[in-house]
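Is this the right way to post structure tokens for a design question? Let me know if I should format differently. Anyway, here goes:
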């Protein structure tokens, strides 16, 4: 099967000149078409986004910001960045937007650089409870360069323990409090975090790498009215190019811009900046709001079907695009569940659950998400079926071939990137 028009008119040239690499690109399209993608942090960017990513804007050096660059010839790419900034500010109601961070991690690095000095104290969610590596893990710069206090979720409810957050904030007096997570299925109360930050005189940073598309579609509350700085990615629920961004108040605008360039990055990737503008433009349309709502409805349907099949949703379910599932009742580890699903044509990832007795490479859970399947056009009824297939794939490894056939049948009319 051909890849369709999505690599642009030059794909034929690549195929002719470098068949080995062209084969990789085609095989990846085939891989995606051949199974269900339930990785919560992935999505299928639109042809318009891919067109911008594959454009000649990739060639242009543009250190600096629109109207104030350190290179000549930036008058055209300036228009792309101005468009991206204007759309991001409008879409999210933010005073200021920086669209240059190369990724979510780069956005967090820059946000910390804007607010902290090495050795300063920060408070963020612990990695084993759903926080991200950049929220103070010792394996990451954030855990080495700052003094980190970590909060978690309660053992009984598996929800953020706001009392613990407040106690830690009062005790440690952090300069920055980070809210936001990578594997937390419930809504985060940004108002409560704002109150705690105000009480201890801390900046509030919201890392909404995951739910930014749901926020764009008004399907979940926005942190923008509460947080001083909001960091995000553009490639997860937002369905744009791989990349990051920062929103902030007017007060912090100059500090954030300097923290991105020249402090933590050099030249921006102008093809990615243009693709971010395309994604913001798409996210402003009513169809995207409908998409965001359906992503959540689908996650709930999937979660309910998994629960029905004996796979326990952490925190009792989901309000977002993702669910965290405790697989111990089925007598497997997260790693084994991931492997069995892969054999059956279902791609998901193992994930630590709160208070997980297993090491990070093994885990007792899996994380599932619905951004990809919703982009493909699957609805709640189909997600119930997906839940049944996931549970069967984990329970009955010997039925993998049969499950894979059912996966292929389910996806037959919902293929991504069909010409
Ligand atoms: C909460 C959170 N922050 C930051 C990141 C980092 O994003 P990236 O992988 O683009 O560096 C992620 C990625 O999963 C995330 O979940």
């Amino acid at each position: 099967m051909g890849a369709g028009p999505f690599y642009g008119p030059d794909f034929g040239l690549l195929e002719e000149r470098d068949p080995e690499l062209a084969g990789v690109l085609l095989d990846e399209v085939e891989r995606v078409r051949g199974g269900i993608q339930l990785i919560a942090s992935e999505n299928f960017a639109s042809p318009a986004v891919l067109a911008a990513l594959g454009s000649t804007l990739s060639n242009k050096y543009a250190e600096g910001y629109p109207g104030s660059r350190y290179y000549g010839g930036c008058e055209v790419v300036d228009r792309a960045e101005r468009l991206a900034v204007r759309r991001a500010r409008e879409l999210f109601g933010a005073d200021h937007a920086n669209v240059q961070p190369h990724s979510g991690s780069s956005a967090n690095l820059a946000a910390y650089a804007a607010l902290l000095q090495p050795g300063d104290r920060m408070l963020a969610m612990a990695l084993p409870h759903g926080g991200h590596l950049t929220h103070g893990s010792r394996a990451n710069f954030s855990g080495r360069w700052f003094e980190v206090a970590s909060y978690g979720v309660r053992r009984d409810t598996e929800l953020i323990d706001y009392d613990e957050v407040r106690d830690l904030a009062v005790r440690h007096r952090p300069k920055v409090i980070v809210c936001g997570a990578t594997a937390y299925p419930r809504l985060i109360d940004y108002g409560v975090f704002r109150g705690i930050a105000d009480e201890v005189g801390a900046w509030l940073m919201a890392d909404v790498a995951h739910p930014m598309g749901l926020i764009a579609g008004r399907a979940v509350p926005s942190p923008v009215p509460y947080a001083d700085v909001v960091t995000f990615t553009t490639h997860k629920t937002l369905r744009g190019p791989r990349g990051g961004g920062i929103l902030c108040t007017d007060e912090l605008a100059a500090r954030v811009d300097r923290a991105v360039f020249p402090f933590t990055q050099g030249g921006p990737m102008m093809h990615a900046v243009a693709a971010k503008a395309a994604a913001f433009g798409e996210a402003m349309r009513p169809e995207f709001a409908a998409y965001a709502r359906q992503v959540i409805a689908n996650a709930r349907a999937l979660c309910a079907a998994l629960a029905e099949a004996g796979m326990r949703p952490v925190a009792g379910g989901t309000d977002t695009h993702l669910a965290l599932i405790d697989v111990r009742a089925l007598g497997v580890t997260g790693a084994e569940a991931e492997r069995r699903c892969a054999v059956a044509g279902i791609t998901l990832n193992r994930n630590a659950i709160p208070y997980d007795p297993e090491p990070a490479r093994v885990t007792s859970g899996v994380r599932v998400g619905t951004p990809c399947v919703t982009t493909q056009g699957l609805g709640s009824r189909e997600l119930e079926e997906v839940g049944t297939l996931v549970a069967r794939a984990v329970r009955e490894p010997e039925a993998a071939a049969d499950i894979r056939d059912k996966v292929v049948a389910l996806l037959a009319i919902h293929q991504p990137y069909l010409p």
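Format looks fine. Someone answered above. Worth noting: DSSP finds 16 helices and 15 strands in the chain. Residues 1 and 30 are 8 Å apart (CA to CA).
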